[in-house]
User: What shape does this take?
Amino acid sequence: MTASRMSKTLAFTLFAAAATLFAGPLPAKAETTLALSSWLPPKHPVVTGVMRPWAKQVEQATEGRVKVRVLAKPLGPPPAHYDMAKDGVADITYGLHSFTKDDRFLRSRIGQFSFLGDNATEASAAYWQIYNGDLKAQEEHAGVKLLGLFVHGPGMFHNNQRKIADPGDFDGLKIRTPGGYIAGLAGDLGITTQFMGPGQVFEKLSRGVIDGVTFPIEALKAFKLTDHLKYSMRVPGGIYNTSWFLVMNGAKWDALSDADKTAIEGVSGAAFAALAGGVWDKADARGADFVATTGVEVYDASPAVIDAIKAIAMKREAAWAESVAAQGFDGKAALAAFRAMTGVAY
Assistant: This one.
C-alpha cells in the first residue's frame, strides 16, 4: 500500500471514530421479534386495550431486546390458536380454553362456571391466583409458556324470540355458545347449541340460523348484534364465563435470556390479569350504555330461572370436582376460594 493510500485510510478511520464519538452509541436493536397471532377484530378492546399495550410493556421491560408484533390477520382459525403456539406456527397466541375440545385443560374449567363474579377485574385476579396457583395451570399448558390468564365480564343470555320468564322458556332456542361448560349448561336447559367463532355470529344471527347467543354485554356493541336481538338476561355473577390464555411457544421462551424472562414475567401473570380485567370492565360499561340506546330489553333473571341454573351448575361443578380430584386437586375448595375473592354468594 502506498503512503498516500495509507494516509487516506488512516484519515477515514479517524473520521469514522470521531463520527461515532459525537453521534453517541448506536441505538440498541431488538434481539428478538415475536409474532402474536390475533383473531379478534383489530378494534376489539382485547386487541387495542390488552394485547397491543402488553406488547409495548414487553418491549419497555426488556429495554428493546424483545419486541412483540401483533399481526393484523390471524395465522389460523380461533380454535387452532393454542396448538399454533405449541407447534411454533405462531410465537404467541391468545384464546379460549373451551375452543379446545379435549380434556387437556380440565382444571381451567374453574373459570367457566356460573356465578363467578360481577366484574372481570376481580374474577380475572381470582382466576390467575387460583388456577395458576392451587391448580397448577402451567402443568396443563404443555409445550408453551403460560404468560397470562383472564376471564371476561359476567356472561349474559341474549335472544330474539322471547323473554325468559321461567326455565321452560329456554326450550328449543337455537343459541351460539363458545363450547365448554356453557354448552353443557345450555343443553341441560333444553337449548339447541351451536358452536362457532365470534366473528360468525352476526351472519348466523341475521340470517336466522341461530336465535341468540351467550356473550358478555360488550360483545353486542363489538360485533354489531343489537339489530338482531330483542332480549338480554342478566344473572348475578354471570350465567357463565370463559377462560382465556396468553401463551408463548416453549422453544421461543427457552431461547430468551434469564433477564428478559424475568422482565416479561413482571408485566405478565397477575399484572396481565389486572390489565385485561380492567379493559373488559370498561368495554362492558360502554357496551351497556350503547345497548341502553337500542331496542334491546335488558332484564334480571327471575328467581325461578336462577334456581334452575343453580341446580344444573351444582351438578356440573360436582362432576368437575370429582374429575380433578382424580388428578390430586381439591376443586370444591378451589371454587370456594375463587368466589370468596370475588364476593359472590353461592
Q: What stands out?
A: DSSP finds 13 helices and eleven strands in the chain.
